[in-house]
UniProtKB/TrEMBL annotation:
Residues 26-286 form the Serine aminopeptidase S33 domain. The keyword Protease does not apply. The keyword Transport does not apply. It comes from Compostibacillus humi. PANTHER family: PHOSPHOLIPASE-RELATED. Keywords: Hydrolase. This is Alpha/beta hydrolase.
């Protein structure tokens, strides 16, 4: 079963579209999904239905500036005029509180993909005691000089206008290791049908605003801040999953670098799964059933 509803953001009143996947049985666990940049929660239906069949209920929202939330705001690819990334992370916690109210004493895992993994890593810094594990899909590591440089460029542009320049700087090289790409988004998946669905989806793949990139780079700096990560409780289980052909994770290197950051701080339960030849969107890859099963197995080990 599915249900959709709206919440008013406690951060600033922005309406946030939220979706719940459930059955008439009692859940053994809950998963909260934080989707990636320039996409929306409806793209996670197949994964969510798989989890519900396993007795795990799923909640997920369209982040501010994305999907139905962005349509209601009137501007896709725009978080807020200030502190947008922080507000998006606060929106996630607001949904966590509702999940805990709906299903008290039920284990809760946070799943973040790509930009959603960046949000999840910032969320952890504030609320690690509230969750039982974090799954980071398609995450990466980004040197400070690159994010600082990108932010300075983005700040000089018109903030509420889509920025092809920033989009090209951020993603322009992502197809470079693919021979004869059919679309600008082949780096997402080896499954041509899934890539085509993304291309044809009006709520996916659009060019975000300059202000969005300011917020994104600010969020990346925050998620990699060692002092902020010291606040996360060290027994929190972390699962890093990525394709070794994913440019966001620098073909595996950035995934390992991210895992090593937490290991250096004393985290005790870190798992890294890299899938050979898989690209950025593991949940839309040709081996997605294998990925679904791996995520389920890991969660069951931490119930």
């Amino acid at each position: 079963m599915e249900e959709t509803f709206w919440i008013q953001s406690e951060a600033d009143g922005t309406p946030i579209f939220t979706k719940k996947f459930f059955s008439d049985k009692k859940p053994k666990a809950l998963v909260q999904i934080a989707h990636g940049m320039a996409e929306h929660i409806q793209r996670y239906d197949e994964f969510a239905q798989f989890l519900v069949e396993q007795g795990i209920f799923v909640y997920g929202n369209d982040h501010r500036g994305h999907g139905e939330s962005g349509l209601k705001q009137g501007l896709l690819g725009y978080f807020s005029e200030r502190d947008g990334f922080l507000k998006a992370a606060k929106d996630l916690y607001q949904i966590t509180k509702q999940m805990k109210n709906d299903y008290p004493d039920t284990p809760l895992f946070l799943f973040g993909h790509s930009m959603g993994s960046f949000l999840a890593r910032c969320y952890m810094q504030q609320h690690s005691e509230e969750i039982d594990g974090v799954i980071l899909s398609g995450t990466g590591y980004f040197p400070y000089h690159l994010t600082a440089f990108g932010k300075q460029i983005a700040l000089r542009l018109e903030q509420k206008k889509a920025s092809p320049l920033m989009n090209k700087l951020a993603f322009g090289g992502y197809n470079r290791k693919i021979s004869y790409p059919k679309t600008a988004f082949d780096w997402l998946s080896r499954d041509d049908r899934e890539v085509q669905k993304y291309v044809e989806d009006p709520l996916s793949g659009y060019i975000p605003t300059a202000r969005f990139f300011v917020d994104l780079f600010t969020g990346i700096e925050q998620m990699q801040n060692k002092n902020a990560n010291r606040a996360v409780h060290k027994d929190l289980p972390l699962l890093f999953i990525s394709g070794d052909h994913d440019p966001v994770g620098n073909y595996g290197r950035g995934v390992w670098k991210s895992a090593e950051l937490y290991e250096s701080l004393g985290f005790r339960h870190i798992t890294v799964l890299l899938y050979e030849k898989a690209r950025h969107e593991l949940l839309h890859e040709i081996n997605r059933k294998e990925v679904f099963s791996s995520i389920l197995k890991w969660m069951e080990q931490h119930l």
